[in-house]
Amino acid sequence: MKTIEQKGMYPKFPRSGKDTRVTHYCAGCGHGIVNKLVAECCAEMGLQDNTIFVDPVGCGVFTYYYWDAAHISAAHGRASAAATGVSRARPDAVTIAYQGDGDLGAIGFNNAFQAASRGEKFGCIFINNSLYGMTGGQMAPTTLEGETTTTTPFGRDPALTGHPLHVCEVFSQLQAPVYIARVSVADTKRILQCKQAIKRLFEIQRDHKGYALLEILAPCPTNFRMDPLKAAEFCKNEMEAEFPLGVFKDAEKGVGGSRSCATEGGADAQERVPPASASLVVKPVPQVASCAELFGVSDGVDAPPAEDDPAVPERRFKFAGYGGQGILSLGICVAEAARLEKRHTLWFPSYGPEQRGGSASCSVVVSGMPIGSPTVEHPDVLVCMNQPSYERFVGDVKKGGVVIVDATVPLTKQPPEGVKLYQVPAIQMAEDFGVPKAANTMMLAALRAFKATGLGDESLETALCASFKKKPQLVEKNRDLLRRAEDALLNN
Amino acid sequence: MEEKREGALPRPEIEEDSCKGCGRCVAACPRKCLSLQPHMNRMGIRPVGYAGEGCIGCAMCFYNCPEPYAIKVVKP
C-alpha cells in the first residue's frame, strides 16, 4: 500500500497560539503548492536535518511553522544576505532562501544580485506572483505592463513605472551562478516540472556546488481579483508571455553560459524585448476626485460631521467570519449608516495574515457621544458567519444583547443568559437569490429586520448603496436583495 | 485472477476542515471524480468530496492542492 501525502511538514502548525492543520495562504495560492513541493523534496532527499531555510518577509513569512527543518527569519529583502551568512557559517549545511518578488525583486534586489554575483553557496527560491501579496496587492517590479494593482489602478504604465523586471534573465548574465531556471505552478504538468527543478536546486546545494536561483511563477487569486482557476490561467497565459519558462543556466549540464543570452529561454526572451520607444508616451492619468472616491467611502459631504447627543447610548457590534465573506464590508455599512445619522462611530478590523479564508472580524462602536476605544470586548450585537467565530465570541455578548448567526453554524455553545439568538440562513438565502457573495447583505437585512442596530432603516439602505459606489450596477441589485431578504425574514 | 476488491482501488482521502474550496483539484482531476460538496466545513467553506469511484491514483489533486493536509491519495 502506498499513500501519496504530505512529507516534510509538521503535522500541526502552532499559528496564532493554536494548533491548526491549515496554512495561512488564501484558497488557490501558489505559495501553498510550492511550500508542499519544497517540504516534499527536502524530505525525499533526506535533507531535513541538514537544511537551514531563510524565511522572508511577505506571504512566505510563516514557512517556519510548516517546514520541518531549521529556520532563520530575515528582515524584508534581506533573505539572500542572511543566507550568505548562514551558508558561510555552516558550509556543511544546505541553505535555502525563500523570497517573494517584492522581497527579492524590489527592496532586496541588490542583496540577492550581489550574493548571486559572489556565487554564495545557497539556493534561492523566488516566488513571482507579479505583485506584493501580503500588503494588499501593490505593484512590484515584476508587475506586468497594463496589470491592475492597488497602486496602479489604471494598469501599469511603463512610461511611469518601467517595464517588468526579468530576474532570471538578469541573473543569468552573471558568471558565478550554477543554476538559474524559471518554472510555474499553474497546472499539473508545470507543478511536476517545478518539483524536478526544486530537486535540482536541493541537489546543487547538497553537493555544495554554488549559487542557484529558481523563479516560480505563482498565482495570487486574491490580489489578481480572480477565482483560483482563472488566476492559474492568468499565470499560465499572461505571466508566461512576459516571463518565459526554461532553464537559463545549468553550468553542470552545459546549459547557458556567462555573458551570453544563448539559453533555452534566453533566445526567446531577446526577441520579446519590447521596443523602448513604443511605450515612452506618457498616457494621461485619469483624474480621481479624492481618496474617498477611490476607496468608495463617504467623502464627508453627504455625511455631515457627528453631533453630540447624550440621549443616544453607546452600542457595540462585533462582526465575525472568514475573510471573503464580506464581514468587514458589513461592519463598514453599519458604521456608514451611523455616520449618516450624525452619530459618533468607529470601525476597527481584525484579521490574520491571510486575505481570504482566515478568520476575520471587525468591531463597530456607535454612540451619541465621542467614543473612547474602538475595540469591542463585550458586544451588544454579534453577527457570526462561521463556526470558529461563533465559538470564539458568543460567550462575550452582553446581557440583553443579540446574536445573529448563520444557520449553517452548529450551535456547539449556548449564548449567555438573557441574550437573544437568531439563526439566519444568510448563506443559503444568498445562494437562493443567485448571488452567493451577498450573504453579508442578507445579514444586514437581518440586522434591519430585528431592529438590532438602533439605526434607521433608511440610513442602513443608503449606506449599503454607498458601499457599491464603485460598482453602480450592483446598487439596485443589492437594494432589491436587502428588501427581499428582509421580507422573507419577517414572514418567517 | 481474483477480481479486485472494492477496498483495493485507489482513492483520495479528504480532510474537510483543511479544505479551502479553491477547486484546483476538481479542475485537475483527469477522471472528474471530485466536486465541491453542498455542505460546509467548520470554517463555512464547501469542501471537496470524492464521487466514490473513478479514482486512478494519479495524485494530481494532491499536487494541485495548496493545502498540505486537505487531500491525500491512498493506493492499496
Structure description:
The complex is a heterodimer of chains A (492) and B (76). Chain A is of the alpha/beta class and 492 residues long. Chain A is built from 18 helices and 16 strands. A seven-stranded mixed sheet of chain A has the order 3-2-4-5-9-8-10, sandwiched between helices. In chain A, α13 (327-340) crosses α17 (457-467). The model of chain A is unreliable at 258-279 (pLDDT under 50). Chain B is α+β, with helices and mostly antiparallel strands. Helix content of chain B is 13%, strand content 20%. The longest helix of chain B is centred in the middle third of the chain and has 5 residues, at 24-28. Classes of the chains: A alpha/beta (492), B alpha+beta (76). β1 of chain A pairs antiparallel with β4 of chain B, so a sheet runs across the interface.
Question: TL;DR?
Answer:
Chain A has 492 residues and is of the alpha/beta class. Chain A is built from 18 helices and 16 strands. Strand 1 of chain A pairs antiparallel with strand 4 (71-75) of chain B.
Chart the SSEs and their pairings.
The complex is a heterodimer of chains A (492) and B (76).
Chain A (H helix, E strand, L loop, with lengths): L1 E3 L25 H15 L6 E5 L7 H4 L3 E4 L5 H11 L4 E7 H7 L1 H10 L4 E6 L2 E2 L5 E2 L18 H4 L5 H5 L7 E6 L3 H19 L5 E6 L3 H4 L3 H15 L3 E5 L15 H6 L19 H5 L19 E8 L4 H14 L3 E8 L7 E9 L13 E4 L2 H7 L8 E5 L13 E5 L1 H7 L6 H11 L7 H11 L4 H20 L1
Parallel strand pairs in A: 2-3, 2-4, 4-5, 5-9, 8-9, 11-14, 14-15, 15-16
Antiparallel strand pairs in A: 6-7, 8-10, 11-13, 12-13
Helix pairs in contact in A: 1-8, 4-5, 13-16, 13-17, 15-16, 16-18, 17-18
Chain B lengths: L10 E4 L9 H5 L5 E3 L11 E3 L9 H5 L6 E5 L1
Antiparallel strand pairs in B: 1-4, 2-3
